[in-house]
Automatic annotation (TrEMBL):
Pfam families: PP2 (PF14299). It comes from Carpinus fangiana. This is F-box domain-containing protein. It comes from the Eukaryota. The lineage of its organism: Eukaryota, Viridiplantae, Streptophyta, Embryophyta, Tracheophyta. InterPro entries: F-box-like_dom_sf, PP2-like.
Amino acid sequence: MLGARELSIVWSHISQYWKWVSSAESPVLPQSRFSEVAYLLNVCWFQIRGRIETKIFSPNTTYGAYFVYAIADHFTELHHPVNVSVRFENENEGNATHAYLQPDTPEGQDGRLPRRREDMWLEIEIGEFFNGQVESVVHMHLLGTDGHMWKRKKKLGKEMDVTTGSALPEECIATIISFTSPREACRDSLVSRVFGSAAGSDLVWNRFLPPDHQQIISESVSLGSSSSTSLNNLSKRDLYFHLCDNPILIGNGNWSFAIDKLSGKKCYMLGARELSITWGDSPEYWKWLPSAEFSEVAYLLNVCWFQIRGRIETKTLSPSTTNGAYFVYTIADRFTQLHHPVNVSVRFENENEGNATHAYWQPDTPEGQDGRLPRRREDMWLEIEIGEFFNDQVESVVHMHLLGTDGLMWKSGVVIHGIELRPK
């Protein structure tokens, strides 16, 4: 357990906001194993951070992080939710979760509720993380910001002095919002004009964008130098949403890059030309057709079995993220023998093939089949989930595999768009 003195508590050194007390001196507070606890006097927002190195934990173990606290007999404005999150170092903040401080919060609220521990303190789950065998640092974060509501507690029935304060500076509000999530920033922008300005600032949205987004834009082959410059001239908020809705071609033009709207994490699509397709260069089996996004898509003319492989380096993807790999395709008006299942799998390099999973091509495949079914995407292509993997901070290569072999049944009519990787 990290004691309060080990945590980073905003304004904890300012006596009109926080007071450091010994729980042994108070008959109201539960006994603490530490010499001091932090007692909240009066703030309009608060931020508490903790950090710990993973090397001190047991390896290959999932841990939960819990904020441990108590509430004095008298308090104000503690019914508002706080945001809690856990992340690894060098990882984007990601999505925070709502939690409630008061134990009598009605069930059914959109957030985590506290529980009473055996030692009579309260605890809220901040989040969980899997400790692999890579040395890193875990960051735990609790943020309470709900406009300018001043929160204070009373101790031993005697009211503490209340310090009045002016509105926070806009840059301070922006800094607070930058530690939340894109969704929370959009919500905060509706609070007031000041919050709207702060929530739309470059300080906030630059934190939500991938750290190397400018380099990726500069290397895009779908943008001329003037278009690349114009993108970088956008506000960070406008650039964020532009990259959510408008993938850009990168590399040799057979990849596309976008960001996930909810988290800001990276999304990649490997076009058909970037995949290894058995017999893909044989005109009697496959035909290459022009495409709107990538230069070409692969059209299946006639094969009795097929094998499609894709690969991507993990250093390209957002770290400490669970990604899904999806095979993106469509079916022509005329096709044959596509009712048979295919085998799909994902693995890391130098890892055994493992167990493949059945998947079905046709969207009208009856439910209840032993395998994954496709779904229709917003862009009207179909997709099948190949599998998922967790990208820790070890550099490796992910291999994605689709294999269709069922005797000598000749198949035709599939159009391959590519393989998409995106956070789950």
